[in-house]
Structure formats: C-alpha cells, structure tokens
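Thread title: Can someone regenerate the structure for this chain?

I was given the following input by a collaborator and told the matching structure tokens would be attached. They weren't. Posting the sequence so someone can regenerate them.
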Amino acid sequence: PIPERLHGATNLRGTISITPGVGGYDLVLSDMTAGMGQLSLRGQASLSGLMTVQPTFSLTFSSAPVGLDELLDWFPIQWVNPQLATIVEDREVGGLIEVVSATLTGTVKPELRASLTGELRLQRGHALVGSDRTQVENLSGTVIVESDRIKVTNVTGRYGPLRMSGGKGTVSFLTPGPWLDLEVTGEMAASDLAVTLAGAVTSASLSKSFRDLRKVQGNSVVTFRMAGSLNDFGALKFLGGEVLAQNLGFHSPLAPEPILG
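Best answer:
Regenerated them for you:
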C-alpha cells in the first residue's frame, strides 16, 4: 500500500521508449532526471507488462545529499522494512543521506508494493540510543540496504563520551523484530570508561568495583561489541570488548595505594 506521507509533484525529464513485451508493453525511461522538492535524482526507470493484470516497475537512481525526512517523503521507510517505521520516529533518527546507487522494484496492481535496496552514505547523522536515550551525533558511515538486513560500515561520530573513529553494524530483519549487532572503536576518558563499564557489565561485584573507583585519570582506546533487539533498547547487551589504557591512574578500596600506569 502507499504510505500516507507519500505525496507531491515531480519534474521529470528523460527519453521514453515503448516496445512490445512478453505480455503487454514495456516502457523504459532512460537518461532520467527528476526534481522532487529538495531531492534531485538521476537514473533509469522501466515499467513492464503495461495493459496486463500485474505490471511491474524498476527504478535505479542516485542523488546528492538530502535530509532523511525529505528522502522518506518520497521513498518511505516501509519500502525498506515496515519494522523500521516506529524506530525511526521514536528514536529521532536523522541526518543527510547521499544515494550512491539504489534500486526500487515492485508491482503496481492490484495495489502498489515496493522494495528498496542500495548503497547510501550518511553524514551529520543523529539518533537517540539505548534505554537512557543517549544522543548519537555527527554520525557518518556507509549504509548498504539489502532485502533482509542493513549493513553499516566506516562508522564515525560521537556516542555520549565515546568519540567513535571506526565501527560496523548490522540490522537483521527477523520475525520477532529488527536485531542489531554492533562493534565500534573509539577514544574516551578513563573516568567515563569506568562509568560506562559499571553500567554495562552483568556481574554485580564487578560493576561495584568500577563504581568504587575514585580520582580516575588518563585516556583509553576501546572497542565495544553489543547486540540486541531494536524494539527494546533495554535489551541491548554489552558482549565484550578491548581496552588500551593510556596514562591510567585511579584509587580503589581494593588497593592500599593509588594505581598508576
């Protein structure tokens, strides 16, 4: 079905050819340019099976960077996966999206049904993540949209105190709901790392040990691995990681003297 937010007018240019097909007629629009509000597309479109019971269409296109809201006005998120619509709205997902290459395919009758795949580039992205709705900002990366999952690579940005310098993730479209697997690398102050680990580890005694640290100083390069359902960010679990501490120092009730590294 056509999502409610899909509306507007398009300025369209290209070369049209119509030929007899296996069933009905086939229409091809080549050298296409389309102006749709702030969105400008280039590519090629085709419509097969004109004058048949179930015509099909295909659109392959690219675009310059445009706001995610503007892009979704013309290519609703339901065409990627219906499970994402609520998440995008609730988590205030936004940013600039450049369509490197994307393909929209579907049927026209008895009602419009479409599927969108392709490669996108994200710039200046933002979202609210986790049960505490921590702001992720200045997010950039390469997004690969497939029929059953979304892959994100070359992730950079800021997540709370973590300055992300690299990372990757996958959102898999499973029957119970979308599932996230994420690995990020970055830098953060050692004091922020202690607070983060105190809330992330499942062991109560280990969590208390991190909370009891005092006068924490130094920096750290970290890699975090997490996974969980996007329908319940409280279920997002810390799976492990690596930490490289630099100029580390702290006081702990478990040690009689300050620890310096």
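The mean pLDDT is 90.
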